[in-house]
Automatic annotation (TrEMBL):
Gene3D superfamilies: 1.10.287.440, 3.40.140.20. One of its GO terms (cellular component) is cytosol. It comes from the Bacteria. SMART domains: AICARFT_IMPCHas. The lineage of its organism: Bacteria, Bacillati, Bacillota, Clostridia, Lachnospirales. One of its GO terms (molecular function) is phosphoribosylaminoimidazolecarboxamide formyltransferase activity. GO terms for biological process: 'de novo' IMP biosynthetic process. This is Phosphoribosylaminoimidazolecarboxamide formyltransferase / IMP cyclohydrolase. InterPro entries: AICAR_Tfase_dup_dom_sf, AICAR_Tfase_insert_dom_sf, Cytidine_deaminase-like, PurH-like. Keywords: Hydrolase, Transferase.
């Protein structure tokens, strides 16, 4: 198959639309549903991301994409009991495979952003992973293959309209890539940069103790950023992205946005949130929305006098600013990656509030000394990679 006609492009008024190969056949097979233009953008970017994570770590990998940026990415390390609870999969009586763990973590870290995602998996989709996907609101999935029972589970999703794409894992794209904007063709060499342990060798801070887990987490951060709309910043802990800030014009805004998402991930694990007494039959998305409001500044919207009964059996007490800060102060050993240099130390100051200990960024700012000094103040380890990772 050299080309595939699509219903429309980014928007319904943008017709005609298709994906096609100038030479050879498309490296995909649509097994179910009718993926759209944006679905394929997410699928192909996501597939590259998980493929690189698998090569860098040797672990099964998954990512949850929305609007051409990852909402979450993770490798298949085991889930803790708390993580199973906050990712709403503690009720499943099944063995979690490495790939299922990867997807649960990629989807669960930022459930608000992952709602209606497109999923990419590094390995053949197994039954356990398909059962997790079945429960979530999602547009589709791409993987190098599907176990027969897993495929049947996915094909039944959305009344048979769920997009399931099989990709040839041996496909290698051309070294030159092109796209058109305003009728003008842009051409560039593909970003074939390999991110591995050596990528973080140039440590510029006083503290130079980069642990093996920190190397994995920094690799996850930088590979995730390689496929995130720039400017972008990514916080990672224990093998999963916990906060991604994408597409902001100012780097400090990326750092704040991603940091707030990382904070929310940690706050969801606090006893105040874990012990919320939800009404019976509440939908998963409604629980996510309620928790997001409860841990934020607009908590009265969900625990106010006239509204709390809609969501909770018993009215929760306010999660005060002091209580939240005390819980956040327990978060530690977080890794932070940036796709371009930090121009000021304020980014490090913000990162410190979210438990960041390890930092990787290109370096090259006229204020590098200020950024290094700020890292040293908090005993952080920072690597200068010397390489920018913009993606547009």
């Amino acid at each position: 198959m050299k080309e595939l006609e699509l219903k429309y492009g980014c928007n319904p008024n943008q017709k005609p639309s298709r994906i096609y190969m100038e030479d050879g056949d498309l490296p995909i097979e649509v097994l179910s549903g009718k993926p759209g233009y944006i679905n394929f953008l997410d699928a192909f970017n996501g597939w590259q991301l998980v493929s690189e994570l698998k090569k860098a770590t040797g672990l099964a990998a998954a990512t949850s994409f929305k609007h051409v940026s990852p909402a979450g990415a993770a490798v298949g390390l085991p889930l803790s009991d708390v993580e199973r609870k906050i990712y709403w999969c503690d009720d499943l009586d099944m063995e979690f495979t490495p790939l299922a763990n990867a997807y649960a973590r990629a989807r669960g870290a930022d459930r608000m952003s992952s709602f209606g995602d497109f999923i990419s998996l590094s390995d053949v989709c197994d039954v356990a992973t398909a059962k997790l996907i079945k429960r979530e609101v999602s547009d589709g999935v791409i993987a190098p293959g599907f176990e027969p029972e897993a495929l049947e589970i996915l094909k039944a999703k959305k009344n048979g309209n769920y997009a399931v794409i099989k990709i040839d894992p041996n496909y290698v794209p051309k070294q030159l890539e092109r796209k058109e904007v305003f009728g003008i063709t842009f051409e560039q060499g593909r970003n074939e940069l390999v991110i591995d342990d050596n990528f973080f060798a140039n440590i510029v801070t006083d503290n130079k103790e980069l642990t093996e887990q920190a190397k994995i987490d920094l690799a996850i951060a930088m590979i995730t950023l390689k496929y995130t709309q720039s400017n972008s910043v990514c916080y990672v802990k224990d093998g999963q992205a916990i906060g991604i800030g994408a597409g902001q014009q100012s780097r400090i805004h990326c750092t704040r946005l991603a940091g707030q998402k990382a904070d929310n991930w940690w706050l969801r694990q606090s006893p105040k949130v874990l012990n919320l007494d939800f009404v019976d039959g509440i939908k998963r998305a409604d629980r996510d929305n309620a928790i997001d409001l409860y841990i934020g500044d607009e908590f009265e919207d969900v625990i106010g006098d006239d509204v709390w009964q809609k969501t909770f059996k018993t009215r929760p007490s306010e999660f005060t600013r002091a209580e939240k800060r005390a819980w956040l102060d327990k978060m530690s050993d977080v890794a932070l990656g940036s796709d371009a240099f930090f121009p000021f130390g304020d980014n490090i100051e913000r990162a410190h509030k979210s438990g960041v200990k390890y930092v990787a960024q290109p370096g090259g700012s006229v204020r590098d000394d200020n950024v290094i000094e700020t890292c040293n103040k908090y005993g952080m380890v920072m690597s200068f990679t010397g390489l920018r990772l913009f993606h547009h």
